[in-house]
Structures are given as structure tokens and as C-alpha cells.
UniProtKB/TrEMBL annotation:
<feature type="transmembrane region" description="Helical">
    <location>
        <begin position="171"/>
        <end position="193"/>
    </location>
</feature>
<feature type="transmembrane region" description="Helical">
    <location>
        <begin position="261"/>
        <end position="283"/>
    </location>
</feature>
<keyword id="KW-1003">Cell membrane</keyword>
<keyword id="KW-1133">Transmembrane helix</keyword>
<feature type="transmembrane region" description="Helical">
    <location>
        <begin position="222"/>
        <end position="241"/>
    </location>
</feature>
<protein>
    <submittedName>
        <fullName>ABC transporter permease</fullName>
    </submittedName>
</protein>
<feature type="transmembrane region" description="Helical">
    <location>
        <begin position="80"/>
        <end position="97"/>
    </location>
</feature>
<feature type="transmembrane region" description="Helical">
    <location>
        <begin position="103"/>
        <end position="125"/>
    </location>
</feature>
<feature type="transmembrane region" description="Helical">
    <location>
        <begin position="21"/>
        <end position="42"/>
    </location>
</feature>
<feature type="transmembrane region" description="Helical">
    <location>
        <begin position="132"/>
        <end position="151"/>
    </location>
</feature>
<dbReference type="Pfam" id="PF02653">
    <property type="entry name" value="BPD_transp_2"/>
</dbReference>
<keyword id="KW-0812">Transmembrane</keyword>
<feature type="transmembrane region" description="Helical">
    <location>
        <begin position="54"/>
        <end position="73"/>
    </location>
</feature>
<dbReference type="GO" id="GO:0005886">
    <property type="term" value="C:plasma membrane"/>
</dbReference>
<feature type="transmembrane region" description="Helical">
    <location>
        <begin position="295"/>
        <end position="319"/>
    </location>
</feature>
<keyword id="KW-0472">Membrane</keyword>
<dbReference type="GO" id="GO:0022857">
    <property type="term" value="F:transmembrane transporter activity"/>
</dbReference>
Amino acid sequence: MQSKVSKVEKPVLPKFKGFEWRNYIVYFAFVGVLIYFSITLYDEGFLTSGNLLNIVRQTATISLMALAMTFVISTGEIDLSVGSIAALSSLVGALALQAGYGIIGGLIGGVGTGIVVGLINGLLVTKVAIPSFLVTLGTMGAIKGLAMWVTDTAPVPIVNSNFNFIFGSGDIGPIPVLLLWTVVFTIIAHVLLRKTSFGRQVLATGGNESAARFSGVKTMRIKLIVFLGTGAMAGLAGLLYAGRMNAGRFSFGEGDELSVIAAVILGGTSLFGGVGTIIGTLVGSLMIGTINNGLIIMGLDVSQQMIIKGIIIILAVAFGKKALKR
């Protein structure tokens, strides 16, 4: 009597061991967004080189702040003050230029302002033990008020053409200067996070702070450094705003904290810390910039764009690997 051997059908699709689709959702989503807008807005010129370069220009400031925010969120903290820091830094940089301190003076003034605020945030979080959400929520409002008070809400024009070229409106051939800023700092941030002991300590601090501390990682110092970094990058973003718009304004960066956080989380960095990706953050930032650009071309107003941003943040957290595990 012959025994019947069950026939096992081979799966139609191959299985990839260790491949987690959720880790790459931002890349698939970005491609999907590009395809959607390319088809629906083809006649409106979405795919023209001019519009695509505009997306890069409009996204540069968000990208730089998001790169630094990746380190903060990877440690399990958050910084809501980046938009306000950018606004105040743009004004300080513009005032330094007006006072005759030149490009170097404007750079020191703008980035220095961000570093000072980042230091305050970091000390309040590490030394006073106030949750970073509350600290940066408070400094966000205080800095916003200070930016409005410094110039009585009046813009500060920048007539230094070299500054405007270097920090925003310049092009080297077909390549926007803002794209070069983004590429350079993306490379630096990626190397720091993935190839240095500092990056490993950042991820260890966010993954399990107590274990990291017992392993010899000075977690409080790591957190202070990442807040300093975020402040510095927000200060530089403020100068890029000023260079692109040829003026410093108190309204620059308004609402940017939402876009920055969304870019980081959507890119694959865990909101709970311990997991971070620089390339994913950049793609998340470009995706948000592409969505904003497409919505503007479609004729949606600011309120509708804010609704879309809110939905993006919710989806980003929902698809976050850590968020689903805890």
C-alpha cells in the first residue's frame, strides 16, 4: 500500500528572511507620492526641473533641523523649539549684518543664538530633570515672543548679496546652494550616527538609558550634546531662511516643529528612542516637502495643508516599529 505524500505548493512570492517591510515604508510611500503627483499634476508642471528644484529649496531648512532632531529623538527626548530658534536666529544674523559685522558675524550670531538656546534646553533637561517636552514647549513660546519683541515684529532686510548667495538664493550652475548644504550635513550626520562611538552612545541612551549608564555611557552629557546640536542646526536653518528670503523675520519656522518631527518619525526613527536613521529622515523630509508642494499646486489652502500634516504625523507614529511593539 502506497502512502500518500502531501503535495506542498511553493509560494508565489519569495520570502526574504530578516526583511521588515515596515522599515522601508517611507521609501515606498515617497515613490507612491511622486507617482501620484506626477500623474495628477502633469499638466501643471509638477515634474519640471524648476519645480523639483523648488521642492529641494523649500525642504532644505526642514531637512537640516530634522537631521539634528534624529539624534534628539534617538535618545528618547524631543525638541519643540526648533522653529522658534530658526526665527530668532534669522533676526540676530540679519541684525549682525546690518551692524557691519559681515558674513562671519552673521553666521556666529545666528548659529550662536541656536547654541545658547540649545544649551538652556539641554541643561534644564539634564540638570533640572524637567521633561524635554515641557522644557522645549516653554522655550518655544518664550523665544517666539523674544523674536517678536526684538524688532517689534518688523522684518530685518539683508542687502549683503554674498550672504544671500551662500545661505539661500544662490545657484552653482543648475545646483541650488541649499541642496549642497543638505547633502553635506546629511553625510556628516550619517557618519556620526552610524560610524562613530558617539552615534552608538546616542542609540544606547535611547534604547535603555539605565543599561547604557551602567556600561559607562555618560547619558546626561550625550543628551546635552544632542540638544546643543539641534539648537545649532536650527540656528543655521534660520540663516538659510534669511538668505533665501533676503531678510530676517519673526515668522520664519512657524509650525516647522511638526514637519521636522514628522520627517524623523516617518523616516524610521523610533519615537521612544534607541532606533535612528539619517537617510530615512532625509527621505521623510523630502516626502513632506513633495506633499506640501503638490498640495499648493492643487490649490489647497494653509488650513487644509495643516490637516494633511497632522494625518501624516499620526500615520508616522502608527507605522513606527517601536510604537507597534510597545
